[in-house]
Amino acid sequence: MITKSKMTAELENILPKKNILSAVEECYVYSQDGTNDIESDVIPDVVVFPETVEEVQSIMRFANAHKIPVVARGAGTNLVGACITSRGGIVINFTKMDNILEINKTNMTVRVQAGVVVGKLQEKVSEMGLFFPPDPSNLKVSTIGGAIAQSAGGPKTFKYGTTKDYVLGLKVVLADGTLMETGTNTIKNATGYHLEQLFIGSEGTLGIVVEAVLKLIPKPETTQVVMAYFNSVDEATNSVTSMIDKNIYPSTIDFMNKNTLQTVEKFYPCGLLTNKEAALIIEVDGFKISMETQIMRLETVLRLSGATDIIIANTSEEQEKIWTGRRASFGATAKLSPDVVTNDMIVPRENISKLVSGISEICDRHGLVVSIVGHIGDGNIHPQIALDLNNENEVKNYENVKKEFYDLTLRLGGTLSAEHGIGLEKKEYFARAVDSVALEYMKKMKQMFDPDNILNPDKIFDVEG
Ligand SMILES: Cc1cc2nc3c(=O)[nH]c(=O)nc-3n(C[C@H](O)[C@H](O)[C@H](O)COP(=O)(O)OP(=O)(O)OC[C@H]3O[C@@H](n4cnc5c(N)ncnc54)[C@H](O)[C@@H]3O)c2cc1C
Known about the structure:
Structural class: alpha+beta
Bound molecules: flavin-adenine dinucleotide
Largest sheet: 8 strands, antiparallel
């Protein structure tokens, strides 16, 4: 195995010194990510900040020659330990490859480097009347490379889908440094295998994405936000079915349970009704001329479904106030205990009510405080649990809770992750969630793309080596 100092010296032949970190205290920062409940004391040997595709290729050729583990990294905000450097090695940080290379209005496509921040991309295309809908809540910092590798979603999935629905083509540096272009920059493509889709959700285990061509859609002319309160969780969840029955398709249907309303209001008062069992935040968009009708029909369905209080946000300030309450839920829950952890399960929409009540029951039984939020229109729930990760008993309870969450989710026909990924966090349960033949072929693919298991080893599932 090559020594750290030799590794650093070799990398200095590929990149300028200013783009290499090797001091332990600097590299330590890159051994962790946004995940709270996984700790690793394995620190990467070197962190590099390439500025060109050729540099990434050279780094991979070097890593491949010496069998050095490589972890690609965007903003490091994933919540499943997908960037944790479990075997040390090299971290390739993409923050210096953050250029939007081309926005093509006629083709309605955008070509970006992997390190482009999702929020910046949204802003830039929006200036041209275009829209890139995938919107992870932390889009102001997370990168498109991370979104592709984690198959990220966000509140707007109900109407617009997730990152996977917008990737037309990719440039990927393979484990041996070869550059592969897959997909096209056309809106349709029936020319062979869609290899670009393979890299979506692959968490940097099959190749390093350096560039992406993404589909854009027309920006909706206007957006309106409605908040509805209910006296029962069932009424709130059933209202989603009623909306679909009545052909009402908002862009977002988000959920907060009573504990979330109370916790947010306690720490970030914003006028939430804390005596209600559930609230929905519903965003509708479209032409200005259609808004009044859309809102009227939505209000009728909500009232018939049992909504007791309906707030229609008419100004952008009012809209922002509603969303601030929802976005504050993680931070507010974090104030209840020294730590907070979150999860991400999804079930078919028809089973959402059973998932929400099951999560409450499981947490109550194990004595853990939970704020339940989620993109309920998608069947996707994020239980946010306040606990003390230094308290052995609570950690043990959380381990049991997680297992029961996944048992319940799978029983309800759902799966382990909707948008956060598997990483280290869920790999123990992965084999239960995917078909055994599919898993066998995933392992074969990993072996084919990365025969020496140097690309983000230990994530999603274990392979030999
Ligand atoms: C407060 C908060 C809110 C969040 N809200 C949401 C949400 O609403 N929806 C959602 O889907 N997620 C959400 N997340 C999770 C996270 O933001 C997403 O997973 C995000 O897409 C990660 O982007 P990143 O740039 O931080 O990637 P990183 O965490 O840096 O990396 C994630 C994975 O991608 C790989 N990777 C990164 N760049 C590349 C590349 N160029 N090539 C190959 N692999 C690469 C890494 O190796 C790792 O496996 C949230 C996280 C936080 C902390």
